[in-house]
Design a protein that fits this description.
Elements: E1 4-9, H1 13-22, E2 28-34, H2 38-47, E3 55-56, H3 59-64, E4 70-73, H4 80-89, E5 94-97, H5 104-117, E6 121-124, H6 131-142, E7 148-156, H7 176-195, E8 205-212, E9 218-226, E10 232-238, E11 247-251, E12 254-258, E13 273-279, E14 282-288, H8 296-307, H9 320-337, H10 340-343, E15 350-353, E16 356-359, E17 369-370, E18 376-377, H11 387-391
Parallel strand pairs: 1-2, 1-4, 2-3, 4-5, 5-6, 7-10
Antiparallel strand pairs: 7-11, 8-9, 9-10, 11-12, 12-13, 13-14, 15-16, 17-18
Helix pairs in contact: 1-8, 4-5, 5-9, 7-9
Bound molecules: NADP nicotinamide-adenine-dinucleotide phosphate.
NADP nicotinamide-adenine-dinucleotide phosphate (NAP) binds next to helix 1.
Length: 392
């Protein structure tokens, strides 16, 4: 059986989870890592059985390593698009940690490069690879709760204020919306899509409120999404507030509750999940037993997809179009809180250099509007040469 040899860029905390999942994935294996830090390189490499010759000091060397079939990117948010482009230009498929880009403009540009190159570019929303999401979709499709009408979904934790942490550092894309807001938004879009027989749906309206703290990032955020056809969503996220962290879907005949939608069983395995379905006052509880490490589902799915030469993992993993739709909502949600984008000092635009899109740090700006096609476009005064070539 053909397997996928993975190289990891940014072997930090989440990369260890991915490596643990990969160790249980028959279709994949870890072959290389790249870290700028020699101690981390050696410790991570030794712990995960990476040969010293494949412990790279530079990210460019990793993507050029012939042993690497695919690249997993787990650097902080602002580098996701840049490192994805690095790998794609080297001809390697990419699984990038969430968020796929700092802005929808970045996601659109990277997705475009991947599509033109015929390479996989996917956002690592691990929860979508866990069997509970496939089961949720089956229950929705069965009509047991009738037509889905509303979802409440939250992902919030209290990390404690620490300006040195990437969560609170605006230069590192800090804040709850970028770190965990994409989870409830992506689930809301998934269920809104299921209500109309599609893979996802995008909201027509996005309203938000929250708290932007002393380091300039959103510490707590609440959002209200309205979809065509009347489906509604309450989403919430935080890095400074512990939340309920459940998802409740209400239909016109009943309701479904996911007790732990995002990290069932936490990170160690078994990753059991509990779904309760209430119809006519009667509740039945389904427990999905999964002895695997939580990240084994994602690691196996993408290893198999890439080994088979496919450029997109099967639904309900996020497609690039789904990731782009999610990024548009995150942009709009952040804009509702006010001021957050400007402080990052980058509008997420791309310029073209030698015919290749590249990330341009263009200084503070007012962000951009969203075209009727869901594609981000810059206002004329802020347009950048080449962005039209990339995303239109
Ligand atoms: N899917 C999930 O469940 C999940 C969970 C947590 C985090 N994440 C995502 O994974 C990403 C990384 O999070 P993490 O908590 O694993 O981070 P982390 O432990 O701080 O690791 C970050 C890695 O990125 C590298 N890096 C490159 N440039 C950097 C810079 N300027 N500053 C800091 N680090 C830099 C570091 O690489 P060097 O070794 O080269 O120094 C380090 O290995 C985030 O985007 C986050 O959203 C996903």
């Amino acid at each position: 059986m053909k397997t996928t040899g993975w190289g990891i860029i940014g072997p930090g905390a989440i990369a260890q989870n991915f490596a643990d999942g990969l160790a249980e994935a028959p279709s994949g294996r870890l072959v290389a890592i790249a870290s700028r830090n020699p101690a981390r390189r050696d410790a991570f490499g030794a712990r995960n059985g990476v040969e010293p010759a494949h412990r790279h000091a530079s990210y460019a060397d990793l993507v050029a390593d012939p042993a690497v079939d695919a690249v997993y990117i787990s650097t902080p948010h602002p580098f996701h698009a840049e490192h994805a482009l690095l790998a794609l230009r080297a001809g390697k498929p990419v699984l990038v940690e969430k968020p796929a880009g700092l802005t929808a403009a970045q996601v659109a540009a990277v997705a475009d490069v991947a599509a033109r190159a015929g390479l996989l570019f996917a956002e690592a929303y691990m929860y979508r690879c866990h069997p509970q999401i496939a089961r949720l979709l089956e229950i929705l499709k069965s009509g047991e709760i009738g037509t889905p009408r509303h979802i409440r979904a939250q992902f919030g934790f209290n990390a404690g204020f620490n300006p040195a942490s990437r969560l609170y550092d605006r230069a590192l894309g800090g804040g709850g919306i970028m770190d965990v807001g994409g989870y409830p938004v992506s689930l809301a879009r998934l269920v809104a899509g299921a209500a109309v027989g599609r893979a996802f749906a995008d909201p027509v309206t996005v309203k938000g409120s929250g708290i932007v703290g002393q380091s300039g990032v959103d510490e707590v955020a609440y959002g209200l999404l309205g979809f065509a056809g009347g489906f509604t969503a309450e989403v919430a996220c935080a890095i400074a507030r512990t939340m309920d962290n459940r998802a409740v879907i209400e239909g016109d005949k009943g309701r479904i509750e996911l007790v732990d939608p995002w990290v069932p069983g936490r990170n160690a395995g078994p990753s059991d999940a509990t779904i309760s379905v209430t119809v006519g006052g009667e509740t039945r509880v389904e427990v999905l037993r999964s002895p695997q490490h939580l990240f084994a589902f994602e690691a196996e799915l993408f290893s198999r997809t890439i080994a088979e030469g496919a450029t997109e993992a099967p639904f309900p993993a996020l497609s690039p179009a789904d990731s782009l739709g999610n990024a548009v909502v995150l942009d709009r949600w952040r804009a509702e809180l006010g001021g957050v984008d400007r402080t990052w000092g980058s509008c997420g635009a791309f310029s073209v250099c030698d015919g290749q899109p590249t990330i341009e740090n263009c200084g503070p700006c007012d962000g951009y509007s969203v075209s009727p096609f869901g594609r981000p476009t810059h206002p004329p005064a802020l347009s950048h040469a080449g962005i039209g070539n990339v995303i239109n």
